[in-house]
Amino acid sequence: MKKWMISLMMVLLVSGIQAQIRVTGSVKDQRGRILAGANIVVKGSYDGTVSDSTGSFSFKTYEKGKQFIVASSIGNKTVEQEVTIDSLPIQIDFILKEEISELKAVTVTAGSFEAGDKKKAATVLSSLDVYTTGGANADISAVVKTLPGAQQVGEQEGLFVRGGAGYEAKQFIDGTLVNNPFFASVPDIASRGRFAPALFKGTVFSTGGYSALYGQALSSALIMESIDIPDRSEVSASISTVFLGAGLQKVAKDKKSSWGGNYGYTNLLPYFSIVKQKPDYFRMPEFHTADLNFRMKTKNGGMIKYYGTFGASDLGLRRPNIDDPNLKNAFGLNNINVYNNLSWRENLGNGWKMNLGLGYSTDYNDIDQEIQNQQNQKTTTGQSWIDNNNFQIKTRSDLSQIKAVFDKRLSGISVLRMGGEYMYFYNRSTFNNQTATLPDHFKALFSEADLYITNDLAAKVGARFEHSSLINKANIAPRLSLAYKTGKGAQMSIAYGEFYQKPENNYLYATTNFGYAKATHFIANYIKNTALQTFRVEAFYKKYDGLVKTHPSFNNAGAGDAKGIELFWRDKKTFKGLDYWVSYSYLDTKRDFLNYPKQLQPTFAANHTASFVMKRFISKINTGFNFTYSYATGRPYYHLVQSGSQFTIADQGKTIDYHNLGFSFNYLTSLGKAYAVIVGSVTNVLNSKQIFGYNYSYNGQRKEAITPPAPQFFFLGVFLSWGVDRRQDAINNNL
């Protein structure tokens, strides 16, 4: 009996051994690199193993018939292979494709800087940086000027980027165009931006090669995304040397909606009484600003947002007349601006998303320009070059727009975007009772794909079609960007794109027989980004065609180019508690446009521009100290004199180099039950002489430097909030 049982056990053991089939093989990625630690199992069983340091594996299985062998590895897509298990060993090799994820994937960065709270490779500035940059006085455009590519132009508003004029850079909020992003223009004095930084959760400053979703900007796009629903309700108030303000933000108990508004009043009479200005203001600058907002979450996880602003300003100033020092130029301005933006972001299901934007804005200017005598009375001289400065202009600029963008998620995180926009521009100008209008039905279609081939390789491919009824011309603009990850936190990007823009209205009032101006961008960059340090270098070439010429006739015969290299370094690591960044731009640009007799370096472009920004927050005293030093080599200036149908250069040169050291501090404290931030700021601390260019008399015998209205600007303000501790934001940003 005992011998029989032993014999039976031996038979079972042998048959069991014979039933086990060995499965061997290897696991590698698409590039042939070994994948150690990959899991290999027979689907639905406990039979399996992991690959060794050589990528090889071997295990035995009792399963029979048709089965699936599954190989998986973190960061790669799981692969199944069907096999038939009988009596023979199985050899099977796996090649796993990389799993593309938003956390690991490369980001296309050529030509763009991001400012916001998103943890992306392109992010170089936080939203709080806009408030704490020394001397910037919380002006988004002033902070952007500390980044590579932007010029230090102080006599007119706008962003002057890589050899482009200020009107060649456009601003967008939640996808729609902002028609008048700056306060109304005053001759030889730059106006600040209309929008407060607290409105935005993210800002992309594109110095070139921007997305096909945007157009009509030859040089640059500043793309801003407004905040969603705040965390909690808040009441705020502010008082400073130049303005008073108050605001309310109410958040629903279920955190699914919010509404709010702000009002501000600015009057520069007290400030100008202390800090004397070069112009003689006969109407002190006075500003009223107000805004309203509403935000609501939808059932499908989308968001509806409304934002509207109102602004009214009034001022008047006198300057000596350059042709006759005994006379004065008196300039008066009254401006009313209204801006409305409604956006709807929605999930449509099956990988589809919708972004819908509606906008309406109107901007009204009433400008009086007079020649006055020493008694401030309007006068005429009989000399046309002087008397032509007696005029009145009334302008109205309306923009109605609708834009729809549809996103379709492709495989992995790749996305296809498509959509279109319609904008109706209505511009009306009355010059000394002579009225002209410029209506334009502007239409655009666009498509763009973000394609992630691997986590290390991505492409953005798109195109844009546009048509303007005003000039009755169409264009097609291709865009292409590629990015390749070269190592941990490091990547390279290249970009190519064609960009078009209509001529400015002051030329279209003369004739609509124009085409589009065109700029072709070529960009290459390298960026190395860690949690505390960012290094970036970028080279570019930009070719201009179809620029506006005003002599000998109005046409699109102008051309030019711009090329250069830019550096950016930000460091929060090397010096404990110290945050700083350095930017440098080299620009070589020439263009033949307007009344230029040949290709010249434009008056708004400097060859070398640099900024150094330093921030230090001292927790023991709850105070942050911020310094910004900006430098630019001298910009060219020209006195162009008409000779027949052409212009010649009667005088030329370069201004002195530009130096500006800005300082600000922010002290965090409490006043009663209110959280408080006390802010002080000074521009041009060293009182450096600044000259932005020159004005010439009619005969060229007088030459006057264009300088700031005052050498320095001082600011002191107290910002109070109830419900939200803004102080903590500043502390957390500096830990």
UniProtKB/TrEMBL annotation:
Keywords: Cell outer membrane, Membrane, Receptor, Signal. GO terms for cellular component: cell outer membrane. It is found in: Cell outer membrane. Its main location: membrane. Residues 1-19 form the signal peptide. It comes from the Bacteria. This is TonB-dependent receptor. It comes from Sediminibacterium sp. KACHI17.
